Amino acid sequence: MRIAIIDESASRASIIEEGLSQLPDCQISVITGRHGLLARIAEIDPEIVLMDLGNPSRDVLEEYFAVSRALSRPIAMFVDQSDDDAIASSIDAGVSSYVVDGLSANRIRPIMEMAVRRFNAFSRLQSDLDAANSKLTERANVDKAKRILMNTKGITEPEAYAELRRKAMSSSKRIADIAEALITAHELMKD
């Protein structure tokens, strides 16, 4: 497992490394500077990112939240103090675990495991939501295509659907693809 530790303090980073020392087959990379952070993370290509920010200013926190938004990885963030806005921003940025005043070696592994599980659960939910939205869009397009056929050919809804289905079968395409093509053609013809 590749793990990136982001911490400007080498001594604090060593606490995280100590907490990870029991993990087998673990590649740990420590990043201590903020310059070129995304490029350095991309180079490492970690499976999880652990950020220790100590007591960051609002600007530093926002900078790290921007990094979090750009990554599609489980992220555990450690801070010494926090407020409601910072917690809300961390959630919006995709931080999987936001730990306040909890940096100790014996807590690192369970926090990291929780971050990975929370990230995976959120990813599954996002994937399910995307699939549901895609199906709704396809259904709306099929309904719109049926209305176009009904209005232009003067046929009933079952006849319009049967025509879409026949065309899909004869061209080895999905009904949703045929519906989308029909809608596009209809819009082009209107102009």
Q: What report would you give on this structure?
A:
The protein has helices at residues 10-20, 37-44, 58-70, 84-92, 105-153, 157-170, 175-190; strands at 2-7, 27-31, 48-54, 75-79, 97-100. By secondary structure, the protein is an alpha/beta fold. The longest helix has 49 residues, at 105-153. The chain is elongated.
Count of DSSP E strands?
5
Strand order of the largest sheet: 2-1-3-4-5
**Unreliable segments of 5+ consecutive residues:** none
How many helices? The count is 7
CATH topology of the largest domain: Rossmann fold
Query: What is the CATH C level class of the largest domain, in words?
Result: Alpha Beta
Q: Kindly name the structural category.
A: alpha/beta
Overall average pLDDT: 89
Instruction: Note the beta-strand portion.
Output: 5-15%
Shape: elongated
Q: Give me the CATH architecture of the largest domain, please.
A: 3-Layer(aba) Sandwich
Number of domains: 2
Secondary structure layout:
Blueprint (H helix, E strand, L loop, with lengths): L1 E6 L2 H11 L6 E5 L5 H8 L3 E7 L3 H13 L4 E5 L4 H9 L4 E4 L4 H49 L3 H14 L4 H16 L1
Parallel strand pairs: 1-2, 1-3, 3-4, 4-5
Helix pairs in contact: 1-5, 3-4, 5-6, 5-7, 6-7
Q: Short description, anyone?
A:
This is Two-component system response regulator. Residues 2-116 form the Response regulatory domain. This protein has 191 residues and is α/β, with parallel strands linked by helices.
